[in-house]
Amino acid sequence: MGEYLVDIKHEKLSFFTPVGEVKALNDVSIRMKEGEVLGVVGESGSGKSVTAYSLIGLTAENGKIMGGEVNFNGHRVDLMSEKEMRGIRGKEISIIFQDPMTSLNPVYTIGNQIEEAVRIHGDKSAEEARERAKELLTLVGINEPEKRLKQYPHELSGGMRQRVMIAIALACEPKLLIADEPTTALDVTIQAQILELMNDLKNKLGMGIMLITHDLGVVASMCDNIAVMYAGEIVEYGSADDIFYNPKHEYTRGLLKSIPKFQEKEYSKLVPIEGQPVDLLNPPKGCPFAPRCDSCMKICLREKPESIDFGENHYSRCWLNVKDEYSGGEKS
Amino acid sequence: MSEKLIDIEGLKQYFPVAGSKAQVKAVDDVSFFIKKGETFGLVGESGCGKTTTGRSILRLIEPTAGKITYDGDVIFDSKSGKKADMLPYRRKMQIVFQDPYASLDPRMTVGDIVGEALDIHNLCKDKKERYDRIIGLLQRVGLNSEHANRYPHEFSGGQRQRVGIARALAVDPEFIVCDEPVSALDVSIQAQVVNMFEELQNELKLTYLFIAHDLSVVNHISDRIGVMYLGHLVELAESEELIFHAVHPYTLSLISAVPIADPKIARASKRIILQGDVPSPLNPPKGCAFCTRCPYADEICQNEKPEFKEIGPGHYCACHHVDIASLSRKSKNKMVIV
After folding, report:
1. What's the order of all strands across the beta sheet hosting A6-17?
2. Is there a domain that residue B184 lies in?
């Protein structure tokens, strides 16, 4: 069905908290083809994890999808029951989390946990599962798999644990791997290892990857397309080159300017984005980024910007892009 | 400018291991100095001893051995047994911690958190003066007077880090240890805080020891950078020299591991991927600490500790194979990837 592996259409999602409704996602649309690597970038609270979790049915209990469709591989994920969801979770879609220290069960061996993932879908015998587990560990670059299978998570380093998590996620060769800040908790040299591994595996297995991160450096080398999120909206979407060389949203530009340039000899002062992130309990009426935007115009405070296309694969929501049509005393 | 504010010689910090005689050598024989008014960056992976070094200098943990000199005064010397009374020095040396969520007392108002240091050192004559100074400090770090009566949980991460900085500034220090002050913050906020550190330094003539694992941030803010690995300083040089003329294989791999936020360069550049993990500090390799992951390691590396020696003006490195390493750097990307 359809040509897209992931097709999220105008998704709205809210969390109901004691202090009120938090609109975590506001009209989010994402499409991914098979084998595509999509980077989702944004700061904490921008809704990047929430988007991914709703795709795999892991939205917290007080969260509710208020509108739109979530399609994955021909399933309407937003309409599926927990039981149906279990049928595809781990089999067609898998996830690895940010913190490998807490996402493995400390009282089971590595072997137990990988075999569980192998056996839960399909009818492999215990022995076959063990063989498969060994294969998987070798695939993710862990040496001495026999020995590792008998070890507990606390005996492994952070990088190793993240490899084990990836092995579990790959157990049934999913079509989509969601990686939620997979390297944020790791050191740079280990981060480089894990990114290299994910790149390798993508080429070997041809799966799609949704890479969630706040680090623009991580997405630059790996992703085909990038979605930049702010306050529960995708403010800009485009190919990696579009986003880095031809950004069309002030937030994207701000993000790019605020990273220290590493390979430049010239010292240049960082340009931060001033102000604080949005309070989603009281989102601003117009463009959510307007209060922090240097080029804010009157219309930005009043009306939400429409999405404007720049070519087939690049859009952004920013009034500045249609400034000419609105000029004539509009700019404050 | 060349006057030394902090001078550390042979600093060692060993921790006992419960239930055994073994010791974790968190910091093992580290020597360096920090000049007045400069920012000295310390980088390395988790567990390499960079935070411990920072805390030992302030004697927040008592060093096992070594000598620490602050502005000409010896404040710790294990040989002569000298241990200076730290209270007067605490006015001059302050610290900003990594985690702005854990380092502020949740039951104190921000005003009291900042004011506590003023009380300890009796810096204010009366309540009015104390209040004015607190407000002045909050404003200096970009907060305002209303914030003084609020509690830490009402602030975002970036704002809390500002409170931590205001607290450190309260006593008019000369030297601040910044222990990963931006690691827990979002990128857009990170830049705000980094800029603030720079502005404060220019205004108040501060000296920083800036500890972080993110080489790009450290490079941005530091005049000189020291690279630590497993309790040892492996390379030290001026920032530009270190980034563009690094010699130690570990530094080279750290530099190449920094993600580059530019797709074309990132796709074209070949990373040096280190194999394996950092060895346990309980059981470090006998020779060079880096020999288990180093592509050039041979017999001598496994058996003998390399000397931390000067290889160029102000450029120090601890490696047996300085020549090979620097050769491979010149012919970029030729480094063997094992």
Report:
1. A20-32, A6-17, A63-72, A75-76
2. no
Cα three-residue angle A174-A179-A185, rounded to 5 degrees: 145
Residue B276 pLDDT:
76
Q: Report yes or no on B250 lying in a domain.
A: yes
Token pair 């056996």 in the structure block, residue: A119
How far, in Å, CA of A114 to CA of B145, rounded?
A: 55
Contact criterion met (CB below 8 Å) for A181 and A212: yes
pLDDT higher at A138 or B325: A138
Strand partners, A179: A96, A211
Instruction: Give B323→chain A minimum CA distance, Å.
Output: 23
Domains held by chain B: number:
1
Nearest-CB residue to A218 (from B158, B259, B277): B259
Considering only the beta carbons, identify the residue of B188, B253, B267 that sits closest to A43: B188
Query: Under a CB-based contact definition with an 8 Å cutoff, are residues B245 and B236 in contact?
Result: no
Q: B175 in helix, strand or coil?
A: strand
Top-confidence residue, B234 or A324: B234
Residue A135 scores a pLDDT above 70: yes
Q: Average model confidence (pLDDT) for chain B?
A: 88
Domain annotation covers residue B282: yes
Q: Which domain holds residue B315?
A: 229-332
Per-position DSSP letters for B220-239, written without gaps between them = HH-SEEEEEETTEEEEEEEH
**Within a domain: residue B242?**
yes
For a pLDDT cut of 70, what percent of chain B falls above it?
95
B309: exposed, middle or buried (C-beta count within 10 Å: 0-12, 13-18, 19+)?
exposed
Q: In sequence order, which residues have a C-beta less than 8 Å from that of residue B70 and are 6 or more positions away?
A: B5, B6, B89, B92, B93, B175
By C-alpha distance, which of A252, A270, A251 is closest to A260?
A270
- What average pLDDT does range A227-254 have in this prediction? 93
Shortest Cα distance, chain B CAs vs residue A266, angstroms: 10
Cα–Cα distance for residue pair A114/A121, rounded to 1 Å: 12
